[in-house]
Amino acid sequence: MANRQSGGSNTAAGGAQRPNGAPQNKICQFKLVLLGESAVGKSSLVLRFVKGQFHEYQESTIGAAFLTQTVMLDDTTVKFEIWDTAGQERYHSLAPMYYRGAQAAIVVYDITNQETFARAKTWVKELQRQASPNIVIALAGNKSDLSAKRMVDHDEAYAYADENGLLFMETSAKTAMNVTDIFLAIAKKLPKGEQAAGAGQAQGRRITDADSAPRSTPNCCK
User: Fold this and answer.
1) Cβ-contact 73, 14 below 8 angstroms
2) What CATH number is given to the structural domain containing 31?
3) Which tens digits make up the pLDDT trace of 69-115?
4) Domain total for the chain?
């Protein structure tokens, strides 16, 4: 199985030493997986979130790509280990390797394509059946910048998400609308644990070798 490797910078995202000897931010690490049909914009969402970039023509992911990014929540730095999975049907059987042990998932559909919404519901059912019992699932209706071509009604998607206990936002990787917000909403909903001690500087933006094998990442605060 081949993985697509992505590059990025090591820009610090917070957690520096506080004045007067105050404790530093605790760091919590979570595994997050993106699922959805091919071409709904999963990779574009991740690229926008991690690097603040958007490419009009994004290469299709082969297998999965692995990236990391951190967000700040009050006294906590949440580090996401993100698995961006391929949407092509031939890779479907590999998906459990990536969502196994994940604490969070974003299921993405294209608001201009009703079939991708139906497929998103299938992914949600699969996660509810086979993923970790306490997994936080967000539903992202991507390509909101193409609302003139909308085929999936916002209220329909919202009602579905509400019935299934999902976070829900419409997003646009192109305009950046709600991209950071959906990751922040997930970070707020994730349990931060009681093991946190406060030492250490927060991990910054980092892109890790995508050729590494999929692995489960425990909910870990340190």
Assistant:
1) no
2) 3.40.50.300
3) 999 998 899 999 999 987 566 567 788 988 999 999 999 999 999 99
4) 1
Give the domain extent around 53.
26-189
CA-based torsion, 189, 191, 197, 203: positive or negative: negative
As a residue count, the chain comes to 222
- Which residues are CB-neighbours of 100 under 8 A, at least 6 positions away? 131, 214, 216
Residue 1 is assigned to a structural domain of this protein: no
Give 82-93 pLDDT, tens digit per residue: 999 875 665 677
CA–CA separation, 80 vs 201, rounded Å?
16
Parallel, antiparallel, or unpaired: how do β-strands 26-36 and 104-110 relate?
Answer: parallel
Measured CA to CA, the distance from residue 189 to residue 199 in angstroms comes to 23
CA distances from 68 to 51, 55, 199, 204 (A): 10, 19, 20, 9
CB 26 within 8 A of CB 202: no
Exposed e or buried b per residue across 151-173, where buried means at least 16 C-beta atoms within 10 angstroms of its C-beta: ebeeeebbebbeeeebbbbbbbb
Q: In this predicted model, which residue has the larger pLDDT, 197 or 25?
A: 25
10 Å Cβ neighbour count for 120?
A: 26
Q: Domain for residue 196, yes or no? A: no
The answer to whether position 127 is within a domain reads yes
Is position 106 within any domain? Answer: yes
